[in-house]
Design a protein that fits this description.
By secondary structure, the protein is α/β, with parallel strands linked by helices. The protein contains 14 helices and 17 strands. It has helices at residues 10-14, 38-46, 65-70, 79-83, 97-100, 119-127, 149-168, 195-206, 219-226, 250-265, 287-291, 337-355, 369-374, 385-392, and strands at residues 20-23, 50-54, 74-76, 88-90, 108-111, 131-134, 176-178, 181-183, 187-191, 210-214, 230-231, 269-272, 298-301, 318-321, 324-327, 375-378, 381-382. The strands form 3 sheets. An 8-stranded mixed sheet has the order 3-2-1-4-5-6-16-17, sandwiched between helices. Strands 11-10-9-12-13-15-14 form a 7-stranded mixed sheet, with helices on both faces. A hairpin with a 2-residue loop joins strand 7 (176-178) and strand 8 (181-183). Helix 7 packs parallel to helix 8 (195-206) and helix 7 (149-168) packs antiparallel against helix 12 (337-355). It starts with 9 loop residues before the first helix and ends with a helix. Bound molecules: nicotinamide-adenine-dinucleotide (NAD). Nicotinamide-adenine-dinucleotide (NAD) binds next to helix 7 and helix 8.
Length: 396
Amino acid sequence: MEVLSTPASAQETKGINPVIVAVPKEQTPGEQRVATVPEVVSKLTKSGLVVRIEHDAGTGAYYPDALYTAAGAKIVSGRAELFNGATIVLCVQPPTVADVDMLAEGTIVIGFMNPTRNPEAIARMRDRKITAFALEFVPRITRAQSMDALSSQATAGGYVAAVLGADNCPKFLPMLTTAAGTIRPATVLILGAGVAGLVAIATAKRLGALVEAYDVRRAAGEQVRSLGAKFLELEINAEGQGGYARELTPEEKAQEQQMVSAAVARADIVITTAAIPGRKAPVLVTKETVATMRPGAVIIDMAAESGGNCELTQVGKTIREHGVMIIGPQNLPARVPFHSSQMYAKNLQSFLALLITKDGTLVTEFTDEILTASLLVHAGKVVHKPTSDLLNGGKP
Ligand code: NAD
């Protein structure tokens, strides 16, 4: 493939080595997203960075090579050329060991790192003295909201889950008054009203369903009600540190189970999003509860990849039990790749602003608290303590 040339960056003309940002084509099966989009490339190149995009990197998200070229990027074919001399690599999925082996010492990699499922590549980045920033560790402080890729991708996932539920439901979602009779609205139950859950609620409401939701955090009640949905109340508050949920006691679990089971039994669509960071997802829908559901009911288990909120969920599969369809989707944000990539790219653009100075050079120290919190691997060490414990029993 022809390598297209681009005008020299401002840094090159001044004789300063420009920061080279490289964006590979994602390799994970089913991954349609790309780490940057032409609109963001145009901003990066204007601020003096050189941007290289691997041929076809944006095709799956409907951003053709030509748009990147028009935005000032250079399209290259193959990883070797892409990574050669790159300062920063932007990715969606964690880099593979093979990719890490192609990077020069000191290269900065930014993306989701999924440390618990990706120990080999992290160990390799440590050994090859790569610097890795994990977007999942960006702190959820106000200043970092524009970099919060967990939230942007959960937004995409929540939307897709609601649409998937509607698509597989044998009923209309809205109430309809027609000459052929009146149709009652469908009932949609959302379990877990975090970022994804709230978007799923809003989407199901827009489709006209009656929406009920439950979360162990009482604070979620207000947000649920503000979207016009009913919040199922239980007399416990399981809000833990940093706004995340804590684990429930056995008695609390039994009460919760009873209330949730009754709501599940009357729902046409159940969307489960309950997660506890770093742990297996809690089971909220048992196989006994599934047996009480209406025939034709649909469960979309957004927690499928972390163990599932429904006991019967099989990750990556759609199964039927007692006339109920149970969908265990993987990578829902990749099903709306155009917009999930756009949001992700903007998250990365904001993150890059912490790493690149106004004159287009790399910062010399990672002192900003957002950088410190998300730094996973640096200078031959796994600096994120839980990941380092996971890899080698706590030795840095
Ligand atoms: P998450 O993906 O970790 O979990 C999803 C939801 O499941 C959470 O609301 C959680 O409370 C809920 N849950 C856990 N166990 C449950 C159970 N047994 N039953 C029912 N629900 C259960 O969460 P998230 O969407 O990433 O967000 C978590 C929190 O962080 C929310 O309060 C959110 O508003 C907050 N947040 C803050 C910022 C910010 O301040 N910048 C950004 C994003 C999210």
